[in-house]
Each structure stands twice: as C-alpha cells, then as structure tokens.
Design a protein that fits this description.
Structural class: mainly alpha
Organism: Austropuccinia psidii MF-1
Radius of gyration: 22 Å
Number of strands: 0
Protein name: DUF4939 domain-containing protein
Region (Disordered): 1-24
Distance between the termini: 77 Å
Helix content: 40-55%
Biased composition (Polar residues): 1-12
Largest sheet: none
Length: 118
C-alpha cells in the first residue's frame, strides 16, 4: 500500500509553470515622423497582450509606453509625468484609449483617416 501511494504521488506532478516569452521593447518614438506612431502603439499593444497580468490596468500600459517616448514626444509627456498624483490634469494617463488618441492627435498624420477613406 505504501508503494502504491508513493507511485501515485510521484505521478501526480504539477504542470510546468508557463513563462511568458520576453519580447523586444518598442522602438523609441520621438514624434517627428507621423507614420511611426501607429507602429509604436502596435508594438506596445503586443507587449500588453503577451503579458496581461502585468498590464491589466490602463495606467500601467500608459506609464510603460511613456518610457519609450523621446524628443518632442518626451517633452510633451514630461509635465504630466512630473505631476503623476494630479488626477485632474493627468486624466489620460489612466486611460489607454485616451493616451492613444492624444498621441495620434499630436503626432499622427492628420490626413490618415482621409487617406484610408479615399
């Protein structure tokens, strides 16, 4: 009986823990080339999708993405990051869709929608 229990408990093993594969960080976005905003945001979204536990909240997504803003884009976000506790002026830092919209509005191609519809 003891042998049977030993065999049974050795056969009941835990499945291996799933380890999320690491992904390349997004290329830095400087805000000077409008056509790059879409690929920057898409790279960020792939990372979020690959690691949903760490990026469950929009605020984490937004703050992670700001790490890769440089140049003009960094100058735009800097005042908001220096006052992270002010929820009123930093409303879009808590919403990935609003952050995306701000990036497109400020740095994207204003004619992109018109080009896509044509």
């Amino acid at each position: 009986m003891a042998n049977l229990q030993a065999v049974s408990s050795s056969e009941v093993s835990r499945p291996p823990a799933f380890k999320t594969p690491s992904m390349k960080a997004p290329e830095c976005f400087d805000g000077t080339q409008a056509f790059k905003v879409r690929s920057f945001l898409q790279s960020c979204k792939l990372i979020f999708h690959n690691d949903p536990e760490n990026f469950a909240q929009d605020r984490k997504k937004v703050l992670y993405s700001t790490l890769f803003l440089i140049g003009r884009a960094a100058k735009w976000i800097e005042p908001y990051l220096s006052n992270l506790t002010n929820q009123d002026s930093n409303y879009f830092l808590n919403s990935w869709p609003l952050f995306e919209s701000q990036l497109f509005t400020l740095f994207g191609d204003p004619n992109e929608v018109r080009k896509a519809e044509a």
